[in-house]
Amino acid sequence: MTKPSGGNQWKTLDKDLGRISQIEYATTYVARPLVGPGIALAFMVIAGLAAALLFGTQPNNMIVVAAAVFGAYMALNIGANDVANNMGPAVGANALTMGGAIVIAAICESAGALLAGGDVVSTISKGIIDPAGVSELRVFTWAMMAALISAALWVNLATKVGAPVSTTHSVVGGVMGAGIAAAGFAAVNWPTMGAIAASWVISPVLGGVIAAAFLALIKSRIIYQDDKIAAARRWVPVLVGIMAGTFAAYLALKGLKRVIDVNIGTSLLIGLVLGVVSYAVTRPMIRRQSEGLENRNRSLKALFGLPLVLSAALLSFAHGANDVANAVGPLAAIVHANQFGAVAGEVAIPMWVMIIGAFGISFGLFLFGPKLIRMVGSQITKLNPMRAYCVALSAAITVIVASWLGLPVSSTHIAVGGVFGVGFFREWHMERRLRNHVGHTGMPKKIPAEERRRRKLVRRSHFMTIVAAWIITVPAAAVMSAAIFLLLNTLIS
């Protein structure tokens, strides 16, 4: 019997090693999509263990543990969906890389939640449900649990289909649905729900109009000027001053609850002072930065890059300060009710609960945020630093105006409405320029209908998907919450 030659042995070994390598590649390819959910699941388990350790052997501790797990799940979904609205425009305008945006957003969201997050959260979510209808401890606990689970599931589903939805409205719908299941339709404060429904229209329209107005200002005062650089030296410091003043007023109004109670007048005065200071500081900086730049639009983008990054960071800080309660509000209510054996209209948020919210938002952003960031930043309409700057500025201004008017608005709807506003303004502006363009015959040039459709600058498919998701958020979350409440009540009573 002849032995195989050494060369054949090496060929056989190479083939076997090649097969093993292919198996490893295939395993890596299959396992990669499971990494994110695996880390998310681990975080939820850690949140539950932390609740078990901190809540100790008190009565109903398993209910608090379950609520902590679902609170962590909700926070993960807010990070995956809501934060995209703040960072999407900056990434779409290429002012930030995806990695840079995620790092800045994670730091600023967590800082906003832990440093300036509200001490107190309304357990009946802005007076949606009559407290008398859910005054019994068991009913209240299951209502809050159902609201938390349904809101988290709905935001998760919306993220899957690529629709940025309002987590505030998801929680509102969850509380309403559980309240109806527990105490009937009469328990709902319908005027409050009517105001929230009105905000579905008011928020995006107001955000879009303000963003379009600022883009019109930039086009007329800077882009269409003969000397663009000289115009930018005059107007960019003014725009930066408006941005700084607006954010100062916004953060004073929304993000300083732990330090001092600030009314709208004081916050506007703070904004005015800081806006003037920012204008004075920025003017020489822009002059130095603009030296040697060519007189073209590409040069202007460089002047808006840093203000856009700062505005995205400030939006994330304000969002963390204002919206973390959406994740942890029902959890804080459950913790308080089971700790003291009574239902309270307002409760303090324990620090460990706030930490779950802050870290959950950061993990959700890292693991699942890029999909929605790309969608908001580049798939609705094409953004550059100037357009993205208008979106960020309109978001802050709209929230200030809405707070002054007492309107319950959604930061998600405002930011995405700003993106739509910029896109639709560009469509209208292009149409107007085409109509005014004179052809060889001396008459305005006519564009065929098919070519006009091709030149649309806002993707209609995304527009319809997002608007549909906004409209059905509250009823969908309400139906899911009612079903979950009835299920919990049946299984555990």
TrEMBL record:
One of its GO terms (biological process) is phosphate ion transmembrane transport. Its main location: membrane. One of its GO terms (molecular function) is phosphate transmembrane transporter activity. One of its GO terms (cellular component) is membrane. The chain crosses the membrane at residues 34-55, 62-80, 139-159, 171-190, 196-215, 235-253, 259-281, 302-321, 349-368, 388-405, 411-428, 463-488. InterPro entries: Phos_transporter. The keyword Transport applies. Keywords: Membrane, Phosphate transport, Transmembrane, Transmembrane helix, Transport. It is a multi-pass membrane protein. Pfam families: PHO4 (PF01384). It comes from the Bacteria. It is found in: Membrane. Belongs to the inorganic phosphate transporter (PiT) (TC 2.A.20) family. This is Phosphate transporter.
